[in-house]
Amino acid sequence: MSMKGKALYTFQSENKEEISIQENEELVIFDDNSVDGWLQGENSKGQRGLFPASYVEVIRPRSNSNLTDCSISPVGSPGNDSSYFPSAPNTPFHMQQGYYDDDDDDWDDWDDSSTVVDDDGRSGANGHSHQSPHSNNPNVHYRAKPYMERQDSISSSRKGSMVGRNLNRFSSFVRSGVEAFVLGDVPMNAKIAESYTIEMGPKGPQWKESPTPFSCSIEDPTKQTKFKGIKTYISYRVTPSHNARPVYRRYKHFDWLYNRLLHKFTVISVPHLPEKQATGRFEEDFIEKRKRRLILWMDHMTSHPVLSQYEGFEHFLMCADDKQWKLGKRRAEKDEMMGANFMLTFQIPNEHQDLQDVEERVDSFKSFGKKMDDSVMQLTHVASELVRKHLGGFRKEFQRLGNAFQNVSQAFMLDPPHCSDTLNTAISHTGRTYENIGEMFAEQPKYDLFHMLDKLSLYQGLLANFPDIIHLQKGAFAKVKESQRMSDEGKMDQDEADGVRKRCRTVGFALQAEMNHFHQRREVDFKEMMQAYLKQQIAFYQRVGQQLERTLHMYDNL
């Protein structure tokens, strides 16, 4: 429930997630439970965002028997019950409000609150069995979740010489768990349940290829109903090449998987799903467009050496039993190798890399990514405009030209003594030919431009992920420099500073591996995109030329 507050001090925002407040300014506070010392609210200018809890006091309503009064207490004082959001530390802030279900449907038929019980009747950790789930992927193994201390309780026991933490606890560097990993705030009382290997390739660090590569088809979008027709949805047949056994998935199943991927793989550019749409979800054009883009999304997933090995992805692709589906879904949602723990899963090469060189490579990729993003957006705009012309302008212009030729033919028929039926027929046929060409232009985008736009949309999403991923590496670099400065000043042991540097290497290797994978896929995808577009353009204009040649021959015998 929103409540009023007043700023005790002036605070100047430093990023887009924060808002500035002035001393004595009246505020609206959306929730007085602070998150790592930050509140969300609105200032007197109507701006919404975060500000430090210790900078404000909350005006609390207080009720007596016949009198309503207000009490004022600083946020975070003993009178204020401060707590944390119950979300994972790497959950994006906008996602903590719950997921929007595109199918406008509840989840009761797809999920429940059941608990997996061992054979002896004891529940496993976090609601699932102590036994490892069976998996067909030899590289991914899961175990029961151990007790994990909260990161703030661990860090509070550190000495005062420890490297400082970012003030903004909502930054991606903090939420992802990379800060905690780099500073060594990761409990080491459990085995590493899964492993992803980074190896040195000809162009630098790269993900080790999956030992069992596969592909997956998405076909046959079918309209389905349930609850006696009350609920309607589209089901897709998903067939992995592992076993060629199809499973049927709705968009919300893809959406669930996508959000699990976002939570877990913080240093990997997870491809965006096709956009959601509130209306027209059952129109043929929209269904076909979504299917095309889901196919591209799936192709990228299966080609990624890390994402394709994820146990939750395998469960999505291969589980056909409803009961097992629910159990596997819960197991994925209870995955402990998230945030800072996920960084422990990387096996990096022994080769030495100078952090300055790594920083330069990252900066170079950042500049490249910005330029590519701009060029992809420009091409998307041009291609979209060309589609609009194909569907509208070009079709109309050719139809107008065809109609004009038809009118000439009709005019020639008005004076029979001087009328040439052969010429009139040829001119009339020319008019119909250009009308047909107009229709051909209107149909052509679905053979070439639509597919180009699909691919560009995929890459817009991939490129949009990299600024946040690069921010993780930049944050790690900053901690290395800070720790070395503190060591030089005698405020930190050199062994501790070396540990920060070593863990920063892990982050650097992972980012470089992802950068190299992006470049590898980019070359393959854009080669295929350009070849497919040019082949379709050649075939299109050949068909146009053939129609015009046949029409031309009608004038030969005049």
TrEMBL record:
InterPro entries recorded: AH/BAR_dom_sf, PX_dom, PX_dom_sf, SH3-like_dom_sf, SH3_domain, Snx9_fam, Sorting_nexin_WASP-bd-dom
One GO term of the biological process aspect: protein transport
Domain (SH3): residue spans on this chain: 1-61
Membrane topology listed for this record: Peripheral membrane protein
Biased composition (Acidic residues): 100-112
Swiss-Prot/TrEMBL keywords: Cell cycle, Cell division, Cytoplasmic vesicle, Endocytosis, Membrane, Mitosis, Protein transport, SH3 domain, Transport
Molecular function terms, GO-annotated: phosphatidylinositol binding
Location of the region described as Disordered in the Swiss-Prot/TrEMBL record: 66-141
Keyword Cytoplasm among record annotations: no
Biased composition (Polar residues): 79-94, 126-139
Localization in the cell: Cytoplasmic vesicle membrane
Binding site for a 1,2-diacyl-sn-glycero-3-phospho-(1D-myo-inositol-4,5-bisphosphate): R250, K252, R290
Domain PX residue range list: 214-324
GO cellular component, one term: cytoplasmic vesicle membrane
Presence of the UniProt keyword Transmembrane in the record: no
Family as reported in the entry's similarity comment: Belongs to the sorting nexin family.
Protein's name in the database: Sorting nexin
Species assigned in the record: Coregonus suidteri
